[in-house]
Amino acid sequence: MINKEISILGCGWYGMALARLLLTDGYIVKGSSTTAEKLTGLQQTGIIPYLVNFQAEEEQFDPAFFRCSLLVISIPPKRSTAEQYTFLSKIERIIKAAFLYKVPEIIFISSTSVYGDQNEEVNEETIPLPETDSGKAILAAELALKSSHGFTTTIVRFAGLIGPAREPGRFFAGKKDIPNGLAPINLIHLEDCIGITKKIIDEEAFGYTYNACSPDHPSRADFYSYAAQQSGLEKPQFKNELLNWKCVNSKVLSEVLNYTFKVRLNLL
User: Fold this and answer.
1) Domain boundaries, the chain
2) Whole-angstrom distance, CA of residue 32 vs CA of residue 8
3) What residues are paired with 107 via a beta bridge?
4) pLDDT in tens, 172-216
5) Nearest of 50, 55, 46 to residue 86 by alpha carbon
6) What is the 3-state secondary structure (H, E, C) of the chain?
7) Residue 25: pLDDT above 50?
8) Which of 4, 80, 134, 230 is deepest in the core (most CB within 10 A)?
9) CB under 8 Å to 108, separation ≥6 — which residues?
10) How far apart are CA 71 and CA 102, in angstroms?
11) Closest by alpha carbon to 21, among 47, 52, 49?
């Protein structure tokens, strides 16, 4: 990319890890937080910090944040709050700002929850049928971005996130009678989250919708029992049953990027 300034809207678990990787490669990284207290931490990491807020009752941003060659939007709606019902209006305000300040490229961090559990393998050609409120909100945001003019939108749908501070061995450790034990897992490690994003940027492979999910899909019972054991925790007990499920295939990721996953989940 000619202009190596990248803005990351949402420097959380994923956004901060991506920022660190980009900084090591010589990119100028602008990062946002909704709270002033976190700006010092961003600056100490080498990120140019900005206070950015697109809440309906409090819109606040510096136009300089949007003067970049790429905007990465990583602000998923919180599942446990009413924010999922206002998420689309937040994205629409971000779209307006991106258009106003002529952002050329946007990567939107989405989720494989847009597919729902339809008892089938899904890929990027599958019509999304979200079942949760957060999945519906994320899909609406995808559609709003893709239908907007003035910039190119790239969608990256992450599967369930694991990695530092999200160790899978702790998810179900010691629990009993956990349903759907035979359902396949759909997960991705943070190392691959940032690896995939970096490859999209390096190869300028913009404009696609990518599923980003490990190609390994052991059963929930097998995987989480193994993960708990590896962490020295009590093994969970799953019900030997197959209820609603999906198996996420990253078809476009393979065809366009030829990406090789760094962290495999096949019970090494």
Assistant:
1) 5-164+188-214+245-257
2) 6
3) 72, 154
4) 999 999 999 999 999 999 999 999 999 999 999 999 999 999 999
5) 55
6) CCCCEEEEECCCHHHHHHHHHHHHCCCEEEEEECCHHHHHHHHHHCCEEEECEEECCEEECCHHHHCCCEEEECCCCCCCCCHHHHHHHHHHHHHHHHHHCCCCEEEEEEEHHHCCCCCEEECCCCCCCCCCHHHHHHHHHHHHHHCCCCCEEEEEEECEEEECCECHHHCCCCCCCECCCCCECCEEEHHHHHHHHHHHHHHCCCCCEEEECCCCCCEHHHHHHHHHHHCCCCCCCECCCCCCCEEECCHHHHHHHCCCCCCCCCCC
7) yes
8) 134
9) 73, 141, 142, 145, 153, 154, 155, 156
10) 11
11) 47
